[in-house]
Design brief:
There is one protein chain. The chain has seven helices and two strands; from the N terminus they run αβααααβαα. With 151 residues, the chain is mainly alpha-helical. It is globular and about 55 Å long.
Length: 151
């Protein structure tokens, strides 16, 4: 399971999103290496779905970043940044069906495993489809402006 975030970087996502990007690249290499043996490697790239990832990331980041004055003088408070970031993410989670929306990801994985000729990538969620098919053509300066608007 990848993430559409591998295609759309975001501030404060450097640890998580870079691992997703690496996983996608690794999967594509392995796909080419094992293709001749009849093995198919696929990547499912969901958008934002309601899981505990946001809450856990917010809690862990707030705890780990602490309240060091020197750090806070260079960067905004992690807790404040995550609170500003969480609202649009929660809206995207609702757009994708809330907790019930996770069935779309599960169904996608099942369909991909059952397909005699699977796609190499599956995009799940309205937000992910928008990013994959539309926002990839937007200039980087515009994406940076939107992504950093929360602080």
């Amino acid at each position: 399971i990848g993430s559409i975030g591998a295609r759309m970087p975001s501030s404060f996502g450097s640890a998580y999103l870079s691992t997703k990007s690496a996983m996608v690249s690794y999967s594509e290499c392995v796909r080419q290496e094992v293709f001749r043996f009849g093995v198919r490697v696929i990547t499912v790239e969901p958008g934002f779905f309601e899981t505990e990832l946001l809450a856990n990331g917010s809690n862990n980041g707030s705890t780990d970043s602490g309240n060091d004055a020197e750090v806070l003088s260079a960067y905004p408070s992690y807790a404040e940044k995550m609170e500003k970031t969480a609202e649009p993410i929660r809206n995207l989670e609702k757009l994708n069906g809330g907790k019930a929306g996770l069935r779309h990801v599960t169904n996608c994985v099942i369909d991909a495993c059952r397909s005699p000729v699977p796609l190499t990538r599956y995009t799940v969620g309205w937000d992910a489809k928008l990013i994959r098919h539309v926002l990839v053509f937007a200039p980087a300066w515009l994406i940076d402006r939107v992504q950093t608007a929360q602080g």
